[in-house]
Batch of 2 targets.
Target 1
Amino acid sequence: MTVQLTDHQINEFKMKLNDRFMALRREISAELLHTDEEQYVDLAGRVHDSGEVALADLLVDIELASIDRHVQEIRDIDAALMRIAVSSYGECCDCQEPIAIERLTAYPTAKRCIGCQEAHDRTFAHGGQPKL
Ligand SMILES: [Zn+2]
């Protein structure tokens, strides 16, 4: 059986997600600094007032293949922080059951319980078509 997260636990995940978000932002800034100094200054200025709109702009602007992975992770973190904001964090997006805390600890951005994730992976992984 899984249990609903307490406010305290949610706060800990929120801090963890924010830390990772900051670290990623620094990594992306460093990578951009390598590729284009002017763009970095522009980006850094906008990231500074990190509202959601600014973040959306940032994500649209970032198209460098080398940082795609980081951008994807930032999106996942952003989505997880949004779920915290609307109090649906830790709830499976498919079956609405609570996600096991062990799973959230390992993957704070998890949006599915392990059962639904495995079903999802079976359906979409390996390029296979869903069976009728
Ligand atoms: Zn589920």
Note: The mean pLDDT is 80.
Target 2
Amino acid sequence: MSGATGGNGFETRAIHAGQDPDPVTGAVVTPISLATTFAQSEVGEHRGFEYGRTGNPTRAALETCLASLEGARHGFAFASGMAAEDAVLRRLVPGDHVVIPDDAYGGTYRLVAKVLAAGGITWTAVDLTSTDALRAAMRPETRVVWIETPTNPMLTVVDIAAVAEVAHGRGASVVVDNTFATPYLQRPLALGADVVVHSSTKYLGGHSDVVGGFVATNDAALAEHLGFVQNAVGAVPSPFDCYLVLRGVKTLAVRMDRHAENARAIVAMLAEHPAVAKVLYPGLPAHPGHDVARRQMRGFGGMVSFVAAGGEAAALAVVAETRLFTLAESLGAVESLIEHPAKMTHLSAADSPLAVDPGLVRISVGLETVDDLVGDLRRALDVAGTTRADDAEATGWRGALARRRRRASDTRST
Ligand SMILES: Cc1ncc(COP(=O)(O)O)c(C=O)c1O
């Protein structure tokens, strides 16, 4: 980390860690270093960089910055969140067992159940809010307990310290997917986790313009493994990608505060709306993980899910009706997004124990004017409230999608 930032606060490190002014030009913004190869003064003598896949100055700045934010000694950037997850799990060998949450992100489920399982690794999906269930799922060959908290899209909150105690007691390591919370709201390593992974495509990048992943750890042996995989497999982000994430991270703290503030207003509206059967948000005192979230998080974040009272047809009608909330996958950026997990992000978990309620709607609350957001969602819910299950195909979903297409030009002018 840059010597000037050690011991400084989160916002200072987000802006300065690993990002000293350029020693040659004085540029205050980390240059996008495009060189694929670096001069050596003699064979094997270089200034820290040899070949672009192995290491790159822009990537090194990003890795230093993000590791600092997670309170980690080691950080590794990858080309996507899935590449980061894959790098961590490549440590497993045939016969090993991994525990995943029973509402894990669909891509994590797919990686474990379809890719790793084909290589002889076994897995169990467990409700990690119950340490008894976790204890029952642990086997002598369990090497990893994979936590996601809050989860995507159910917003389940898992007690990281409690899971770490059980896992470590059985000799397994603990990985936390910290994508939803970000290091601004939650620092898993300080709570006992061994590894943190991110889809930096989300809040870290923050602007829906870069796909990336990140892994942080304080474990030297694991760091050596990660550095080896990063170079050997080569799923590395481009220098431009690294620049975009670095740029996004500078405003992470202020963005997260506003995401959460806007989410609170939306949750208040959803809780009162008759077309909503249930709101899933850790900030609600009635949320089963509220007390744990208060303890281990600094705020409750900008992701909200809800179950439409009219089931799947109503959920599909809501996502088709909003104007400011764009119907799209992904999350964590300045613009508000809405999606239907069962048919979109979590389709890969359909027909599995991790299948998602088809009445569920997930929203990523952005940074637009909060009254506009509340108004947009309320209006869409008013329409969805009139959707009958039996006319959904004809008028609800398809009709609303057609209306959505027709008004595309109006939407752009808002
Ligand atoms: C919680 C979580 N983890 C991991 C990923 C995978 O990240 P990426 O899409 O950057 O590969 C996602 C993507 O949506 C996610 O939501």
Note: The first strand starts at residue 74 and ends at 78.
